[in-house]
Amino acid sequence: MNSGEKLAIIGAGAIGSLVGGMLARAGKDVTLIGRKEHMEAVNKNGLSINGVVGEFNVQIKTAEKLDFKPDIVFLAGKTQDVEESCLEIKPLIGDIPIVLMQNGVRSADIAASILGEKNIISCILLLNAQFLEPGIVTCINQKPSIIGEMFDKNGERIKQIQALLNHVSETIISDNIRGAQWTKLFINAMGNSIDAMTGLTLGEYVKYYNIRKIAVQILKEALKVVETATIKLEKLPGIPISAFKTIIKMPTPLAAFILKYAMSSKGNSDIVTSTLQSIRKGKKTEIDYINGEFVKLGMRIGVQTPYNSKVVELIHTIEDSGDFFAPDELSTIFQGLEAPT
User: Fold this and answer.
1) Distance (Å, rounded) from C-alpha 76 to C-alpha 106?
2) Beta carbons within 8 Å of 313's beta carbon, 6+ residues apart
3) What's this model's pTM, rounded to 2 decimal places?
4) Which residue intervals of 102-201 are DSSP H helices?
5) CB 144 within 8 Å of CB 122
6) pLDDT per residue over 115-143, tens digit each?
7) Angle, to 10 degrees, between the axis of helix 209-228 and the axis of helix 252-264?
8) CATH entry 3.40.50.720 includes domain 6-175
């Protein structure tokens, strides 16, 4: 890799476009690869980015499919699209790093089954971006990113990719990237599910005590699965996992009370997760790879997961209907479930 490397951002929606736009602003040779409508808007007017990273417009190359050999690929689509994307790009990429930017813990294994293990790098983005109009991306949160080799020890190329991603946000190298992914998944199990079931932003749903109780019970259940499976959660920037676990293990009413202040102090109250953004656009979510992961692991190790199972069921219902659940309605639905201990 060198300063003139060609970078391809595949699956350039909100996050991919933000990453590509920030790299292009830093003078990097970037090509966004995404859906036709978005690519056409970027070709015509440039990529417009606003929010906490400032407001700017950058000219950037686009394509609907990869048609050249890049030096690095950043794969930013949803987990359910990783297999198809890897099969499409396999003939062109050869022996180059593939940086995976999906939610959840499964994308690296999917990619490795097609492209091999040695070039798979995982990246956890603690950014929040919204893409509600072709050609325009809003950055709501710009927190540090975490990267690491998934199947090998971290070496020099990780430092080079870290230097690139520092143009997007401060980037930290982790020697336990899989553990860090489980920590992010643990947090997403609450945030992505609650806003996707209610249609409310963080600042809106955190006001409801009954909703916070559901959030606590989702987390209690997820934590029981993780601890039973002896998965080591790795700390993330701004997420003191030991303190968070202590709160979750408190009696539910007390944990729900504290969670209001813990959540309100973190980030922007206008945060809308990628799961809710997908629903608003009428697209399938990654919920099977978020709460669904705790359900699948719970089944394998003999831990019941009624709360996370219900989350998956309800969000699939919302995907089909487009109708969200009011807080009181959601509280009634979860009321009859056996609370995790």
Assistant:
1) 14
2) none
3) 0.91
4) 107-115, 156-165, 177-198
5) no
6) 999 999 999 999 889 887 899 999 988 89
7) 100
8) yes
